[in-house]
Amino acid sequence: MRKFLALSRSTHGVLDIAMTGFAALLWLGHFPALPVLVVALVTAAAGYTALYALNDLVGVKVDREKFAAAGPNAGYSVEASELRYPIARGKLSLGSGMAWFAFWYLLALAGACWLNPFLVVIVLLAPVLETLYCLLFKVTYWRALVSGLVKSLGPIAAVLVVVPRPSLAWLGLMVAWLVAWEIGGQNIPADWNDVEEDRRVGARTIPLVFGPRVAGGVVLAALIVIVTLSLVLPVMSPLELGLPYRLATFAIGFVLLLVPGFQLFRSHEGRRAARLFDRASLYPVAQLALILIFVLLPE
């Protein structure tokens, strides 16, 4: 079972699920009905489990090239399992991985049908975008934008579960926030940490194409956008999220994003990129914890 969980990067997946919870509570302002909450959690877990597995399934050939000379680098604490990339490293068969993906994907599809039939479109779109993201690895650095769109699908689905007809303008604002978080806090730092392995196989990532100075500038700019937009997100919530909430969300962004991001921008060190990745991975959990406080506070 550990090999399958490593295939789906279960630790990282659980952290990402927190963002769907945050999005739902932000828009609804309270917990949904228990049956909806349970099915939504199962569906989200199944969806993230399937997509992370698909990433390794589609990218298995490139991963084998990357780790032909040596195993994966030390990585980051949320991706620290010794069983990372189990298919590429011969620890799990391709057929077993495909069966694992199919089970969780079908479960996510069934849950989406029950919650809101329109969610089926998102569930069908997610693997298409994830596959495109993997196939663009040696083609263009614009794959980072695709990654941001993939990460935004889960929170979008969460909003549609609790608010069937959300404001498209506010939804677009949330997507911009999510895309900036994925690009500045996850995608570029991850590529930065893997830059030597990626160079061997001719990857076209932002750190490789533009170098550390430009990559660091893009990261810092994206992180500033994230923290700025987080101060605007309360406008889409029925909750009274005034100055205390805004101060708290700014503090979260400052500690988890801006501080490690500025350290990376100043030093250009790979270990700083890994640290930023770790801190940014905790950002959804911190946002969920913050919104829970305001949901549970007595009126």
Question: How would you characterize this protein structure?
Answer:
The chain is globular. 75% of the residues lie in helices and 0% in strands. The chain has a single domain, classed as UbiA prenyltransferase (Tetracycline Repressor, domain 2, Orthogonal Bundle). With 299 residues, it is mainly alpha-helical.
Number of helices: 13
- Counted beta strands: 0
Query: Kindly, what is the distance between the CA atoms of the first and last residues, rounded to a whole number of angstroms?
Result: 45 Å
Total tally of structural domains: 1
| Unreliable segments of 5+ consecutive residues | none
Helix/sheet category: mainly alpha
- CATH architecture term: Orthogonal Bundle
Biggest β-sheet: count, sense, barrel? none
* Whole-angstrom Rg: 19 Å
In the CATH scheme, the class would be Mainly Alpha
Oligomer: single chain
| Proportion in helices | over 70%
Bin the strand percentage: under 5%
Mean pLDDT: 90
The dominant shape is: globular
Give short descriptive properties of this protein.
13 helices; mainly alpha; Tetracycline Repressor, domain 2; about 75% helix; about 300 residues; about 0% strand
